[in-house]
């Protein structure tokens, strides 16, 4: 239900409040529960209070009224008090009727005050003001229709006005407090919903980050497959040892690529995963850092690449994990691109830096000597690396080198 629809329903309920049972229909049009134990206790207390006020008024008027008037006052007061049990169903109608009745029957004054309290609690201000004005007018009329010889007329009018004003103000205070409590509850519910939404969004972003990490690894594996399969295709006369080694690399890379692909699908399918740095498939596999760069280089050398690693970082473990992971991914992407587009060339990976000055990473490969077999790629690796470097507060540049090869250069912050 939109806000406009809710307001229209409220306006219709206010217009036809004479017919709507207010204790069964809430302001938004939804059904209210039946009277609770607390409601019964409040209604009973108001009934007894109104009966007490009526008895006092009847006893006071008996001194200057005849037997018939006294009997009618007693019957009227009893009916007015009993009518209070309908104040939750028809608060405005009951208060209006009791206001008119109190103009000729002082014994209905207590019931009128209780009914006015119910109206102030449940109805909007304009309606409360109108019924309150009617009650003040009826109280004024009562002073002249049923005067009390023991009280000055002006004092009686002022006393009636003050009582009606106090009861109405009390009811409006209760109404405001209830609205405040409901607003706070709604705000709490909304805050909980927003917190759940933020958690879900954080989980989704974390899963996407893990999927990107695994995509880089998967691209590395598939590149190995493509390169060695191409080598077998273009050199069918290679020695059996090289063919066996290439077949072993293809087999291992295919197995690892399938495993990585399974993990990516598992991450994207699992909405409840927190998406931490561990393996979402269930292995808690550690993420690569600068300390594992040697392993990456050794793996590339085992695949037949010529790689020179020149690192002056004495303690790779001291590099922040996020920065070290970015260095690893940059080197991995550079080696992957060199394997695709410049097979057989010597790739140089240079890492320099110290705390406070930042880390620089350079990956360079010369131009290939001969024709290069076409290896398809997504073309998104360098774009993703540029974004990754920017997110860590660094920068990445890439392009053709002066010697005709290709170079990657990145600078990443390393706080002191």
Automatic annotation (TrEMBL):
GO molecular function: kinase activity
Coiled coil stretches, renumbered: 174-212
UniProt KW keywords: ATP-binding, Coiled coil, Kinase, Membrane, Nucleotide-binding, Phosphoprotein, Transferase, Transmembrane, Transmembrane helix, Two-component regulatory system
Domain Signal transduction histidine kinase subgroup 3 dimerisation and phosphoacceptor: 207-272
TM region positions: 40-58, 94-121, 128-145, 151-173
The protein's name: histidine kinase
Domain Histidine kinase/HSP90-like ATPase: 325-414
Alphabetized PANTHER family for the sequence: NITRATE/NITRITE SENSOR PROTEIN NARX-RELATED, NITRATE_NITRITE SENSOR PROTEIN NARQ
Catalytic reactions on record: ATP + protein L-histidine = ADP + protein N-phospho-L-histidine
Short name of one Pfam family: HisKA_3
């Amino acid at each position: 239900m939109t806000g406009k629809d809710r307001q229209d329903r409220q306006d219709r309920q206010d217009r036809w409040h004479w017919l709507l049972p207010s204790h069964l229909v809430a302001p938004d049009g939804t059904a209210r529960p039946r009277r609770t134990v607390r409601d019964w206790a409040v209604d009973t207390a108001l009934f007894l209070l109104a009966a007490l006020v009526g008895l006092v008024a009847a006893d006071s008027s008996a001194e200057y009224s005849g037997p018939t008037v006294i009997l009618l006052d007693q019957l009227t007061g009893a009916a007015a008090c009993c009518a209070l049990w309908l104040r939750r169903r028809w608060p405005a109608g009951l208060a209006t009727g009791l206001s008119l009745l109190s103009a000729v029957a002082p014994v209905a004054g207590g019931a009128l005050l209780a009914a006015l309290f119910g109206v102030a609690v449940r109805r909007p201000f304009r309606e409360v003001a109108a019924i309150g004005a009617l009650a003040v007018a009826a109280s004024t009329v009562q002073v002249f229709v049923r005067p009390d010889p023991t009280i000055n007329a002006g004092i009686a009018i002022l006393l009636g006005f003050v009582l009606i004003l106090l009861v109405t103000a009390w009811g409006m205070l209760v109404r405001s407090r209830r609205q405040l409590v409901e607003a706070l509850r709604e705000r709490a519910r909304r805050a909980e919903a927003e917190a759940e939404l933020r958690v879900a969004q954080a989980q989704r972003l974390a899963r996407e980050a893990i999927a990107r990490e695994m995509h880089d690894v998967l691209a590395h594996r598939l590149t190995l497959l493509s390169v060695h399969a191409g080598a077998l295709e273009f050199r069918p006369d290679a020695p059996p040892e090289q063919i066996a080694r290439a077949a072993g690399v293809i087999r291992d890379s295919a197995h690892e690529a399938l495993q990585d692909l399974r993990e990516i699908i598992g991450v994207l399918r699992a909405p409840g995963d927190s998406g931490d740095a561990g393996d979402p498939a269930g292995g808690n596999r550690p993420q690569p850092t600068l300390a594992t760069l040697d392993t990456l280089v050794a793996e590339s050398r085992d695949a037949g690449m010529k790689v020179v690693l020149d690192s002056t970082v004495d303690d790779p473990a001291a590099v922040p994990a996020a920065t070290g992971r970015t260095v690893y991914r940059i080197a991995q992407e550079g080696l992957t691109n060199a394997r695709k587009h410049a097979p057989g060339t010597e790739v140089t990976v240079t890492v320099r830096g110290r705390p406070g000055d930042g880390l620089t990473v350079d990956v360079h490969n010369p131009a290939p000597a001969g024709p290069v077999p076409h290896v398809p790629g997504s073309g998104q690796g360098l774009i993703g690396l540029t974004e990754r470097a920017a997110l860590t507060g660094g920068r990445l540049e890439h392009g053709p080198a002066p010697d005709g090869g290709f170079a990657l250069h990145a600078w990443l912050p390393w706080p002191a």
